[in-house]
Amino acid sequence: MDKIVVLDFGSQYSHLICRRIREFSVYAELVPYDISSEDLQKHSPKGVIFSGGPSSVYDSKAPIPDDGIFNLNLPLLGICYGHQIIVNKFGGKVKRANKEYGSSLLTIDSDEDLLNGVGESVRAWMSHGDEAEVIPPGFQVIGHTESAKAAAICSKEKSIFGIQFHPEVVHTEQGTEILKNFVLKVCGAQQDWTMKGFIESEVEKLSKIDGDVLCGVSGGIDSTVTALLIHKAIGDRLKCVFVNNGLLRLNEEKEIEEMFKNNFKLNFTSIDASNVFLSKLKGEEDPERKRKIVGEEFISVFTKFAENSGPFKWLAQGTLYPDVIESGVSKGPAAVIKSHHNVGGLPDWLNLKILEPLRELYKDEVREIAKILEVPEKLFMRHPFPGPGLAVRIIGEVTPKKLQICKLASKIVEDELMEANLYKDVWQAYAALGDDKAVGVVGDERKYGNIVMIRVVDSIDAMTADWTRLPHGLLEKMSNRITNEIEDVTWVTYTISSKPPATIEPQ
Ligand code: XMP
Fold first, then answer.
1. For 143-175, how does the pLDDT look when each residue is reduced to its tens digit (9 = 90+)?
2. Would the pTM of this model clear 0.85, i.e. be above it?
3. Is the shortest distance between the CB of 384 and ligand 1 below 6 Å?
């Protein structure tokens, strides 16, 4: 398989370069900027890209690549900071300039190679401080903007290109074309990265492992695809365990069992631990404590199963590529953004080796595999669901009654959105409730009942979210059904707080 290696100099867009390239079926991998030329060679790349980054080549601690990389005679594309590294390295001059953010008009001066077929000018996304003032000998300017005279340069002889703008962000018109020109035309990479091919090679790799594999499944797409891939390779040496914590969506545990046992025919155990979870949560009102209890209890149930049903050699996890990057494993100067993912680290309480067949993949690639493996669409179209389940959607103590109301009301919200063909358009949709009560009239009687909060949000990455402007008629229908069909609910409210300052989940 042909590969493009992207050196990560810490830009927030670094991983987008890989995504864009993979979208046109060439495998691209992000590696730390300080990879040695020997290690880089082990990847057998068809070409190398230097990402952007927050540094200036004049910083005393500016990240610089191993000099040996320039002697490998590989096609090279530098983006933003990567462009400045190239200018600096080959004898040009980088100057400190006014910061430039946003879109600029890039005029194409030479439409061969990199900028072939993109037109006379395009809008290009800039985000930089320094810029190239003098280009290195042997290089030529192939594109400029009003403020950056050397916004795109190349040395045809060396197959080295530098661009000041970011082709990987959607705001750059023809950005994908520019990356395609580099990857397909300059590097000559084959478009052989397909999910069918990935399944074949991964199953082949997995079939060589010895010993039994334990996989915790949640019914979510990542753990499901992980289990299916491993099962394809080693059959019943894979044991899947599902812990029903009693905090799932209505009938979810039954659907999961049906899918794994009857559809997929995996070696599957469902543990109904709902009573234990609920008794541990009894009386607990503090949100963080509730999360902790759910997490700890899960580990306890899971460990018991592992100890009693083994011996296992491997623990399978549905870690994805963004988790790997976020956990700082890529060692780019972007530093560690989150440390909560269990990436690359062994849970020492089990002494198992970690198996992560999806760790090279993005979510959309996992969805594609799910389709190929005939995972029911319902599963991979389902909205994200928090690990601690309904414990974070029930404000205050989790009681069986509040749980039941939360499950039934959420089902109504989901069903009505599906009926209105809006389910796929929103990020998350559910009902939450706390202990507040409000007066209603049921029949001829006054009733002091529960208040249900409907929460529907739009988002692209859960970092920020906006409340969804649902049609009033739809909200009315949801509200009517909730008060009519669920005993003890008298009021229904719609949450209109965005994130920030609110969060998506109430706890
Ligand atoms: P918040 O409430 O922080 O949620 O805006 C952002 C996204 O994360 C999900 N979420 C969780 N997912 N474990 C998870 O696996 C958790 O503890 C957790 N808490 C929140 C939430 O549903 C939303 O998609």
1. 999 888 999 999 999 999 999 999 999 889 999
2. no
3. yes
